[in-house]
Amino acid sequence: MRRNQITAAFVFTILPILAIGGFVAYYRSKAKEARAREIQSQALLDRQAEIINKFADKNGAIVHWRRSLVGKTFRDTIYSAELSQVLIRGDRRPILFIVKLKDVQESGEKFIAILEGRVNIHTHLRLVLEASAEQARALMAQPRGEQGKFAVVASVVRVSSSTETLSGPDAQSDERPVLIVEGHCVDTVFVGQYVGDTIEIFDTFPLSNSTPTN
């Protein structure tokens, strides 16, 4: 009887320890897997950024054009006149955009590529670019989907504005500002699922432009 009591006490003592040990081992395993995924994702992002930077250098393109929108926050409406001053340059250097392909239209011997991205979180961007037949074929040859993005170098000639109404649940609608950027396609490269452009938006634009008071 005494021996049974000791055995039971031992079992009830060791089981929680084993359970805790198993949980710790499981947690460490999951943490290690998460860290490995994080390292892998960062390595992919670094490779994509390197490709984009080399692509920009090859075309003499401006990459960090958002930095010229001084004083704007990540949720500000950006006006067409403000963006025009940034994108239409006196030195005629082209601009690099990270965008998704929405359509390719035929216009006589030329093609029109329509691509979309963001200026910041609030203001959307639509590129309407004249493209050669070769450029159009290169764009249409890539995988199609919401996650497929292109780095596009464009020579901008005009910026205008528009407002789009988006239908939401319960018959509610929401308006979003869209800046229409027209110009000529210089070069393109497919970059796939790339989040670096979104990271740049948050790195470039502050949450607010208010200054703390003493």
Determine Rg (CA atoms, Å).
26 Å
Q: Provide the CATH top-level class of the largest domain.
A: Mainly Beta
Mean pLDDT: 83
Extended strand count: 5
* Helix count, DSSP H or I runs of 4 or more residues: 4
Total separate domains: 2
The share of residues in helices is 25-40%
Strand arrangement, major sheet = 1-2-3-5-4
User: What's the main sheet like?
Assistant: 5 strands, mixed, barrel
CATH architecture of the largest domain: Beta Barrel
Name the shape in a single word: globular
Distance between the termini: 75 Å
Residue fraction in strands: 25-35%
Task: Outline the low-pLDDT stretches.
Answer: none
Task: Give me the strand/helix succession.
Answer: HHEEEHEEH
Main structural class: alpha+beta
Q: Would you give the CATH topology of the largest domain?
A: OB fold (Dihydrolipoamide Acetyltransferase, E2P)
Structural account:
The protein has 214 residues and is an alpha+beta fold. The protein folds into two domains: 1-59; 61-204, OB fold (Dihydrolipoamide Acetyltransferase, E2P). Helices cover 39% and strands 32% of the residues. It contains four helices and five strands, in the order ααβββαββα. The chain has helices at 2-59, 80-87, 133-140, 196-204; strands at 95-107, 110-118, 124-131, 149-167, 173-192. A five-stranded mixed beta barrel has the order 1-2-3-5-4. Strand 4 (149-167) and strand 5 form a beta hairpin. The longest helix has 58 residues, at 2-59. The N and C termini lie far apart (75 Å). The mean pLDDT is 83.
